[in-house]
Amino acid sequence: MPSENTIKCSNAIKVKKMNIAFAESVTAGRMAAEFAMTPHSGKILRGGIVCYEVFVKEQILHVPHAAIEKYTPESAEVTQILAQQASKMFNSKITVAVTGLAAPGGSETKEKPVGTIFFHIITPSDQIKHREIFKGSPEEIVLQAVDKVSELILINLQSL
Questions:
Q1: What CATH number is attached to the domain comprising 59?
Q2: Do the beta carbons of residue 14 and residue 40 sit within 8 Å?
Q3: Which of 22, 31, 47, 111 ranks highest by number of CB atoms within 10 Å?
Q4: Domain count, the chain
């Protein structure tokens, strides 16, 4: 069942007559799935792409290999490119891209520990860049990321 934040966010997107699409790496489709379970999903959810592996980021979403080499697949810079590409692909009013580290084995470092999530959200009025470190199991980290996206979009929509 989606969180209260996600349901509120879905309602706000419907009220504003907008739609939403996702480019998901670390969350592997969970964001789109959570929004799909909200009462207004048929009116707001455009779709999403899971770009977990670098191959998909490069070959389908056209993230330059040089950007991945320079910044790592889990970075603010790559997340921004994913959002821009998905926005074009889905022609969506709101586009969310998310990368990060929910479990060991990626590009984690002392400065970028497991739990670090990068968000880039494109709305009609803004581009929201957010980085946060969550604690918990991989599923808990992913669900906290879904909630954070809902919160960031709600704040932005209030200003429209």
A1: 3.90.950.20
A2: yes
A3: 22
A4: 1
62-89, pLDDT tens digit by residue?
999 999 999 999 999 999 999 999 999 9
Query: Number of helices and strands (H, E) in the chain?
Result: 7, 5
Edge to edge, the sheet with strand 45-50 lists 45-50, 20-24, 94-100, 116-122, 127-133
Q: Beta-strand (E) ranges in 52-114? A: 94-100
Q: How many CB atoms lie within 10 A of CB 41?
A: 17
Q: In 14-126, at which residue ranges do the beta strands (DSSP E only) sit?
A: 20-24, 45-50, 94-100, 116-122
Mean pLDDT in the chain? 96
Three-class DSSP category at 133 = strand
Please give the Cα distance from 109 to 43 (Å, whole number).
41
Q: Which domain holds residue 140?
A: 4-10+19-158
